[in-house]
Amino acid sequence: MKKHTIILIGIVGCLISCQPQSGPTRRVTTIDTVFTTAYSEFYGAHYQLLHRNVLSLDLYSQGLTFDSLGKINGQGTNLYLSDIFIPLEDSTLRSCTYTVDTTGQNFTTLPGMNIDGGVTGAYLLLVNTDNTDPVSKIYYFTSGTFTIQHEGDTTDIDFHLVTEDKQTFDATYRGVIQTK
Prior knowledge:
This protein has 180 residues and is mainly beta. Helices cover 9% and strands 54% of the residues. The protein has one helix and 14 strands, in the order αββββββββββββββ. Strands 1, 2, 3, 4, 5, 6, 7, 10, 11, 12, 13 and 14 form a twelve-stranded mixed sheet that branches. It is globular and about 45 Å long. The termini are far apart.
């Protein structure tokens, strides 16, 4: 009997260790997933060795506003994509799907990262300017996609992003992207 118990424990141990390591992803649920304001800023061929134009995309949920000095106020969610790579002949976002990766190829954006205390790439901030520390949480997106569709002046964006700890973030934007 003791021999059978040891064999059974061994089999169960093997089965457990053979399970996929990544496991299912967890959904981020404490943040806004609908953005109501969007800004884009064009930087041109910002990186000398990359023959591409670069722009950023800055999105805000309802509840976040700006005062006359440009300071953010309120409580909500801010999604920022600092380096979106596009063809040299473009100065705005095309209707297509963009990927979060490190290649610097057209139609990609850099993953979120902290470089010497500075946040860059694709990341999300939970903001509450009523608190002493107005940024209560930062999510860095290491993979994912976002799809842009233009209909006249109106732009629809669907985001499917994944954080470094495998949480998924699905969000949308519909409106006019303002330029900075």
